[in-house]
From TrEMBL:
Transmembrane segments: 20-41
Lineage of producing organism: Eukaryota, Viridiplantae, Streptophyta, Embryophyta, Tracheophyta
InterPro entries the UniProt entry points to: FucosylTrfase_pln, GDP-Fuc_O-FucTrfase
Organism: Prunus persica (Peach)
Start-end of Acidic residues biased regions: 529-551, 571-583
Matches recorded under CDD domains: O-FucT_plant
Molecular function via GO: glycosyltransferase activity
Positions of the UniProt region annotated as Disordered: 511-583
Similarity remark: Belongs to the glycosyltransferase GT106 family.
GO process terms (BP): fucose metabolic process
Name this polypeptide is given: O-fucosyltransferase family protein
Entry keywords, A to Z: Carbohydrate metabolism, Fucose metabolism, Glycosyltransferase, Membrane, Transferase, Transmembrane, Transmembrane helix
One Pfam family named in its UniProt record: O-FucT
Length: 583
């Protein structure tokens, strides 16, 4: 028995010795093949520009997730998550909004209009530009009439500009409300009266005032003519009033802009439908004023990496205006004077905590590059809407032929949004930023383009965590929080500091609150100080005060070295260009 067992063991031993070289050879071949695959196979690509530009149907939410630990292999991997991630703040509200409120009532030193307005003194104005540029003109016209103690004729809207909108004042704004609300401040009439019984209608003397004209400027230049001729019409009335005025005149500005100027019922009803449909889709939504039209990019003088095709297309647009000469197209981008690309806007929002489930309403004209340019933004935020996608053609038909009425719809939807994101510094962005400050400091995000541009250039060498942290740091002071901007800096329409009051009682309650909130308070105050300092350092779009208030504002030769979107610098020699870009 033992003999047979030993013989069988020797048999298996000789068979295994025969198979061992074969097994070793196969294993070696497999190892060599595996090594070759590691060398030749491309490394997994993160979510980058090329990936985002693939058709939307190829994307799924998982494509935005970080698949591995970025630091596990020692190489940064830039992968955009689908979720917004944790945030140390409520992304839908301003941290300190409860401690401030809009206040625009006149002081006791501001006499009633009946006490100061003599008969036969009439001021008429003709506005210029698109809807929002005209809105600033209307607001300033009321204040100008008050300075001159004149009756104001309902302003004439610009019907001949680039926008080619034949609407008059009463077709866009509620004229009766406008007159009645301001009845204690300025006497407003619908048309110039006749001279006495049966006489001829007053014929106004036409003139123009310099840009940023001060109170003294109006008294010295316009009042003498008004006293002599009794009726004056100020033409091309845009940016014609200084940003710095007395307290009561600034508060009057706010009463006009935030209370007296109401859109007509048809505009409000349609806009409310659009807002309701956004709310039906989601509790919160972001409104984005993208401002990435071909004309806008051509004017800005910026280069976005599109090669000869981009240079040729935008160069052809620039040749329409003799004053546009771009010598260094990369410089405006480096200095933060260009709109972000749609993809860059999307990356900024994701880094600030907004996930792929967030709904976005886009107010924009024709986007340069069309759907291909929008694809990265839509991949990051698939819930992507505009008035054309949430309303029927039949509903919008009454508005299609009127650019100002269409712009009014976007204005209201953006104003009602939980978060407003502006991608330029035009009049719509300025007015909405100021309005949202006045009505509770609703979050208004303005990209810190100067810092973000450098960050976008180096993002592929960073982890997503490092990128997102840098975005949040750079955006301090650009989020629409109270005290982000020092009083008196920039346009009053954007920073209506005189009309923002502090609720001192609420602040006292906060400061003496339970001890467990102490850290949050200190963090809030530190953020206010840091954001203000950063605004001064990084913001290229806050022109200081009214040093040139009595100047006519000719085109600055260094225009593109200041602010690519500072429309006040555009020459009146190019009125169409100015009107196109202002809103």
């Amino acid at each position: 028995m033992a003999f047979h067992f030993q013989r069988r063991r020797l048999h298996y031993y000789h068979r295994f010795r025969f198979l061992l070289p074969l097994i070793s050879a196969i294993s070696g071949a497999l190892l060599i093949l595996f090594a070759l695959l590691l060398v030749l196979a491309p490394s997994p690509s993160p979510l980058d520009v090329n990936h985002l530009h693939q058709p939307r149907h190829q994307h799924s939410s998982s494509s935005f997730n970080v698949g591995v630990d970025d630091d596990a292999i020692g190489v940064p991997v830039f992968r955009v998550p689908s979720r917004g991630g944790r945030s140390d703040r409520d992304i839908w509200t301003s941290r300190n909004s409860n401690f401030y409120y809009g206040c625009s009532n006149a002081t006791h030193k501001f006499p009633n209009v009946d006490e100061i307005t003599p008969p036969n003194r009439y001021l008429a104005i003709a506005t210029s530009g698109g809807l929002n540029q005209q809105r600033t003109g209307i607001t300033d016209a009321v204040v100008a009439a008050r300075i001159l103690n004149a009756s104001l004729v309902v302003p004439k809207l610009d019907q001949k500009s680039f926008w080619k909108d034949a609407s008059n004042f009463s077709e866009i704004f509620d004229v009766d409300w406008f007159i009645s609300f301001l009845s204690k401040d300025v006497k407003i009439i619908k048309q110039l009266p006749r001279r006495g019984k049966g006489g001829k209608t007053w014929t106004p003397s036409t003139m123009r005032v310099p840009r940023k004209c001060s109170e003294r400027c109006y008294q010295n230049r316009v009042l003498p003519v008004l006293l002599k001729r009794h009726a004056v019409q100020l033409n091309k009335f845009d940016y014609r009033l200084a940003s710095k005025l007395s307290t009561d005149l600034q508060k009057l500005r706010c009463r006009v802009n935030y209370h007296a100027l109401k859109f007509t019922d048809p505009i409000q009803k349609m806009a409310k439908k659009l807002v309701h449909r956004m709310r039906m889709r989601s509790k919160h939504y972001i409104a984005l004023h993208l401002r990435y039209e071909p004309d806008m990019l051509a004017f800005s003088g910026c280069y976005y990496g599109g090669g000869d095709k981009e240079r040729k297309e935008l160069g052809a647009i620039r040749r329409r205006w003799k004053t546009l000469h771009i010598s260094n197209p990369d410089k405006p981008r480096r200095h933060g004077r260009c709109p972000l690309t749609p993809e860059e806007v999307g990356l900024m929002l994701r880094a600030l905590g907004y996930g792929s489930d967030v709904h976005i309403y886009v107010a924009s004209g024709e986007v340069y590059g069309g759907e291909e340019t929008l694809a990265p933004l839509k991949a990051l935020f698939p819930n992507f809407y505009s008035k054309d996608t949430i309303a029927t053609k039949e509903e919008l038909e009454p508005f299609y032929s009127f650019s100002s009425r269409m712009a009014a719809l976007d204005f209201i939807v953006c104003d009602e949004s939980d978060v407003f994101v502006t991608n330029n510094n035009g009049n719509m962005a300025k007015i909405l930023a100021g309005r949202r400050r006045y009505f509770g400091h609703k979050p208004t995000i303005r990209p810190n383009a100067k810092k973000l541009y450098r960050l976008f250039l180096s993002k592929e060498n960073m982890t997503w965590g490092a990128f997102a942290s840098s975005v949040r740091t750079y955006q301090r002071g650009f989020m629409g929080e109270p005290n982000e901007v020092r009083p008196g800096r920039g346009s009053f329409h954007e920073n209506p500091h005189t009309c923002i009051c502090e609720d001192s009682q609420a602040k006292v309650k906060r400061d003496v609150g339970p001890r467990k909130y102490g850290k949050g308070i200190n963090e809030t105050r530190r953020d206010e100080v840091e954001s203000d300092a950063q605004n001064v350092e990084d913001d290229p779009e806050w022109p200081d005060t009214d040093e040139d208030e009595d100047q006519s504002g000719p085109l600055d030769n260094d225009m593109f070295n200041r602010t690519g979107v500072d429309y006040d610098a555009v020459s009146s020699e190019e009125p169409e260009l100015e009107e196109l870009l202002s809103d």
